[in-house]
Amino acid sequence: MALKLGHGVMILVIISASMFSVSMANKDWSFGFNYTDWWSRFGNHPQNKTQQQPKQIVVGGSEHWHYGFNYTDWAFKSAPFYLNDTLVFKYDAPNATSFPHSVYMFKSFGSFLKCDIEKAKMLANPMQGTGEGFKFVLKRWKPHYFACGERNGFHCNNGTMKFAVMPMIRPFWQWP
Prior knowledge:
The chain has six helices and seven strands. It has a domain at 2-11 and 54-163: Sandwich (Immunoglobulin-like). It has a four-stranded antiparallel beta sheet with strand order 4-3-6-7. It has helices at residues 2-23, 38-42, 49-52, 71-78, 109-114, 150-157, and strands spanning 56-58, 86-89, 103-106, 120-124, 134-137, 144-147, 162-165. The protein is globular and about 50 Å long. Residues 1-25 form the signal peptide.
């Protein structure tokens, strides 16, 4: 029980820290007020169309979706994720030298922590990650919990082949 509670606290800390780091990302931010620069910060800004576009993000980067890689750490380092960004899960088809993989999404934080595959929804089977990979668009502003469901949740239960993301609302203009 303490181990599961510890995982829950760790995930909560990671999500909170990532949201805090994004909010603090502006290097010129300070606690004081500087009204001399008010208009340039909050006035009419030309919209940066390149910033507005959703991104395609390969889960795991060049490592792709495989057993033994820490995806929670990857998600923390790859944040922030925004609404309408696309997560791309790429993995090899099952063969004699590799484990099969799949993509499951959990409805709740509790089932994510327990890796309760029976309460999760399969998004991609072991064959759907080949080629261009399986694509999942972050369309809702809510936490998304992903894991590999193969071997009845073994890949999830070891703690590395699962991750959570909370997509943020994309800013309307780029901060100075």
